[in-house]
Structure formats: C-alpha cells, structure tokens
Amino acid sequence: MALSITATYNDDFGRVQISFTGANTDADYAKVEWSKDQITWSTIRGGDVVPVSAGAGHIDHYDGYVFGVVNYYRVTAIDSASVTSLTAGAFTTGNNSTLAPPLPGGVAAGNMMVLKVSHRNTAATVTTPTGWTRIASGSGHFEHFYRAYQAGDAAPSVAFSGGSAGDSCSAQVLGWINAGTPLHVQTQVNTSAQDVAYPGGTSPTKNTVWLLDAWKQSAGTSGATAPPSFTDQQGAANTAGANGETHLSWRTDQATNLNSFTSGVSVWTGGSAAVSKARLLRVPVRDFTDQGTTSMTPVLPGPNSKPYWLMNPGRPGQNIRVEITGFTEITQGGKTGVFEIVGRSAPVIVSDIMESPAYEFTIDAPDKQAAKELAARIALGDPMYLLVADPNADIDTFYFTALSLKRTLDAPMSSWSVTVSAREVSQPAPAVYGSTYIWNDVTSNYASWTAVLADPQNTSWSNLVDKISSSVIIVP
Predict the structure, then answer these.
(1) Contact, 281 vs 182, CB < 8 A?
(2) 8 pLDDT above the threshold of 50
(3) 379: Cβ–Cβ under 8 A, 6 or more apart, which residues?
(4) Domain contains 104
(5) Residue 191: Cβ within 10 Å count
(6) What is the pLDDT of residues 335-387, one digit of tens each?
(7) What is the structure's pLDDT at 436?
(8) Is residue 301 in a domain?
(9) Domain limits for position 459
(10) Residues in Cβ contact with 78 at an 8 Å cutoff, skipping those fewer than 6 apart
(11) How far apart are CA 234 and CA 253, in angstroms?
C-alpha cells in the first residue's frame, strides 16, 4: 500500500489538516514539512515527530501556510530502529558459470540487500543482474551490487564474461533491516602475499554498519582473522573449478557505533601467496521508509469573511478570525550608543542591528463582552501570530508579542475595539505547539467512557483527537 496524503483547510480554527495512510508498518513517526515552491521545505509546528500507528497519522498546520496560492506538504515516514543484519543467503560457487545465490533469510519489503561477486580470473567481468545497481566499478571480476527488496523478488542471476573453464567463481547476498543505500568507501588492491591488507575509513555518523569484503586468488584458506569490531564471517575457500579462489567478508552492527577505523592486515591461514583485493562499504540507516507530497490551496469560506486570523501557536483553541480596522505607522528603535570624547567634536558609537518593527493595530469587537474575550486571548502573554489572508493587504503576516492592550468604547454605535501595541518577534521553534485535544479536555467534557462513546462526533479515535481544546486558565 502506497503512502497516501490529504490536506484540507478547516475554518474552525484556521488549520490545514494533514492526514496520511499507507506508510510502511516499520515507521514509528513521521516528519511533516511545508513548502511554497517544493524547493525550500520547513518543518511545520509539531511536525518533527508525528506519531504513526498502523501506517497512519495526522497533524494540523496553523501558522505558516499562505491563502490563495498552492501550498505543498511533504510527509516523510521514519523508522528510528537501528540497522540490523539478516541471515546471509548461502555462499554459492561455480566453475565459470552463471550463479543464482539465494536471498537472505527472512528478507521483507524495504530491506536492503548487497550482492557480492568474485571470479578467480582477473580478466573476467560481472554482468549487472537485472534490478540491481552496481555500488562501485573498476574491479571487473570483484563487484558489489545493491537492491531494496520488493515482494516477489527472486535470487539474482549472476553472469560472467571473459573467464575460462576451470575458473572458480562465487556470489552471496547479505541483507539488513532499516538500511539505506550502501556506499563505497575504498578498494585496496594488493600484490602477491599470504595475508590480505584491507583499507580503513570514516563515516560522518556513528549510525552506520560496515561491510568488509576480501578476495584472494588462491584456495585452501582454512581461516582468517577479522578486523577489530567486525564479526559474522561469510564465504569460504572455493574450489568449484580447478583454479581456486577465496572470498570472505565481515560486517559490524550499528550497536558497535564505529564511525572510523584504521587500515590493517587480515592473517589468512593455509593456501599460498597470491594477489588479493579488499573493498570497504558503508551501510547507513535509511533516511525514511516512505515519502510523499500533496498540495492544496487554502481559501476563506466566503467573500465577507474576516480576512485576519489571530492565532496562538501554543494554544490553537484560542485562534479566532478578526476584523482589523487600522494599523499605525511602523517604528523601529535603535540599539546604538553614542559617546562623546573629550577633546573631540565627533562622538564614537557602539552599534548593533536595530530592534524589530513595532506598531499598533486595532481589532473591532461588536460589544463589551467580545472585547473582553479578545483581550483575554492576547493577555496570555504567549507569542502570537497574525495571519493575513489577503495577499494584497497593507500589512504582512507576522509573529508578535503584545506590549500593552487598550479597550475602547466606540461611540456613537456603542461598539468596542481592542488596540494592541505589538512588537514583532522570531517565529517559535517547530517543537512549540499546542495539543488539539488533551486528556484534561476528555475528563472535563465527558463524565465517563460511556459518554465518550455515545458522542456521535466520536466515530473513531482520530475524530476524538481532532477536537480542539478551548480550555485555558487565566490567573488575574
């Protein structure tokens, strides 16, 4: 089931409701982002860790979207688990023949697989199997490929060219859960020797696993030492043809937390001195299990709708659409100190960037009670957000804090107004967000679970969560 995303504007509290289904069941949270151009993406408030249950989740977007134009939403489903190894498929050998190495045990959709292949003849080349991608080129007879498993995948068909009858060849498929695209780090080519030297490497993060694969143009090896922190030796000496080889590999797990290690030499017992190669691969945590986008255009419900939303990012239940009747001039204070110097006519200054813009705006209220409620919403002291729905309005959308409030009786119509002295502030971090409906709301609104279930609006848990909390305590 593919990831399906919907985004719908709901005018109850000025929110775009984003919901998704069909995420991989491995995902335990999702990241939800917004964009105006699909180039620059920003995490919506509360969108850094959105819970996922049975591949589904939802979140509301209150501040940041733009009315009247296309808004884009991206959902990235993420599995926070470590990379873990699957049981390797059987090590398969042949005599210059096409091989079909079996897939790892227990492999499931989305698991990452690496196919390692070698041929005793250094003049031979490996044909890339259908559906697989070569990780790095240039080794010819010693190659590695990757593929994310899809339901129905069968063992790859590994064919060679340029070899001769009697040349031993081998292939094996390894696998990992929650792994991303394998990356080539370094390949080391060694002159004839009994032991096999291998390269070192570094990773930008410790959240990775490593695969070291080594080949030697000699069979009969009865054992080899693994590099420090590497385990799970796979492969063996191969005498399927008269001309033998040895193909061994080791890997780490993410718990090892190995982000760098030095090159070294693996001691190989038995066989004879011969040329060898060693390749180091890095297998990172996959970035996501699923990712998808959708788009929508928020539109106010009617031509006479009030064109401003007064929002509280931390308390969405306090959001309200308002009519603003006027703005004052915009002022910006300075933070520059001027200091007179004895014996000089020109002073020196200690300067800094100017303060953010400040101004007053007036909100219309039909009566005294409505004016009191408006003032109470702003008097909470939280960072506020004024969303301007009309892109042609004289004022832009902005975040602010209220420095003072003034309620006025507007004669002769006896209507009221609330004047806000505001100063623009930085946007609160995405982690600052308000719950739509919290446990306290459930206990306040319902006397029992029977009452919760009896409410015709609560046809599902999702509907209950989608309710908006309007409860807030203001201490005078």
Answers:
(1) yes
(2) yes
(3) 402, 405, 474
(4) yes
(5) 9
(6) 999 999 999 999 999 999 999 999 999 999 999 999 999 999 999 888 999 99
(7) 56
(8) no
(9) 437-476
(10) 27, 28, 29, 30, 31, 287, 288, 289
(11) 15
